[in-house]
Amino acid sequence: MKIVLIGFRATGKTSVGKELARRLGLPFLDLDEYIVNKVGKSITEIVEEKGWPYFRELEKEALYEMGQRDNLVLALGGGSVMHTDEMDLIKANSSLIWLKAQPQVILLRLEQDEKSCSFRPSLTNKSLEEEVACILAQREPLYQRYADLIIETDHLNTEEVVAKIIEFLRQAGVI
Ligand SMILES: Nc1ncnc2c1ncn2[C@@H]1O[C@H](COP(=O)(O)OP(=O)(O)O)[C@@H](O)[C@H]1O
Ligand SMILES: O=C(O)C1=C[C@@H](OP(=O)(O)O)[C@@H](O)[C@H](O)C1
Ligand SMILES: [Mg+2]
Tens digit of pLDDT for each residue in 38-91? Predict the structure, then answer.
């Protein structure tokens, strides 16, 4: 059983993934934390030193490795869905959950999360507000393409999101 969380930055993939794994008694892996531990540098350091294309190569490689793994809950980074070959492999043997949030909610969570500084360097030269609108629009078709279940998280806390995922997995006969 492999449960994979996708969605834009700050929609709750990492927090929900940890709690879901605890509830299901499965190991949890966060793709960004995996990359950071492997390289020994924060995402912000990686991007400042070598640029976004280099981070995307590391992400693609890590995603491919996760395609080979089973029995885990996996939280991806917001941009992981751009690696379509690796995502197609993951899609073949996983339940994929798309966590959604409205742009205003994403902005608020991004600004309040202490990890934004080291895990979420700017993706564009735009203002944060413009960046969220623009990158969300680009990526939504990809999130849609891979999702088995879509959850609107604006008015739900982490436990409520986890409960919805567990209910879906039960109904689908996955657990
Ligand atoms: N459902 C939620 N309601 C309120 N805040 C949330 C929710 N999910 C996540 N957060 C908060 O948003 C921030 C980003 O969450 P995180 O799990 O790191 O998201 P992601 O991994 O998708 O970027 C954190 O500060 C987290 O506590
Ligand atoms: O949206 C993106 O391109 C990114 C999202 C981040 O992960 P979260 O979605 O967990 O914030 C992290 O992978 C990196 O900063 C790139
Ligand atoms: Mg995350």
Answer: 999 999 999 999 999 999 999 999 999 999 999 999 999 999 999 999 999 999
CB atoms within 5 A of ion ligand 3 belong to 13-14
Best CA proximity match to 21, nearest among 148, 156, 166, 151: 166
Q: How far apart are CA 133 and CA 102, in angstroms?
A: 10
When the candidates are 3.40.50.300, 1.10.3720.10, 3.30.300.30, 3.20.20.70, the CATH number that belongs to 2-168 is 3.40.50.300
Q: ipTM of the assembly?
A: 0.99
Pocket test for ligand 1, best of 20, 36, 98, 113 (most atoms within 8 A of CB): 113
3-state secondary structure of 81: helix
User: What digits encode the pLDDT tens for the residues 9-51?
Assistant: 999 999 999 999 999 999 999 999 999 999 999 999 999 999 9
Q: How far is the CA of 33 from the centre of ligand 3 (A)?
A: 8
- Measured in Å, residue 95 CA sits from the centre of ligand 2 at 20
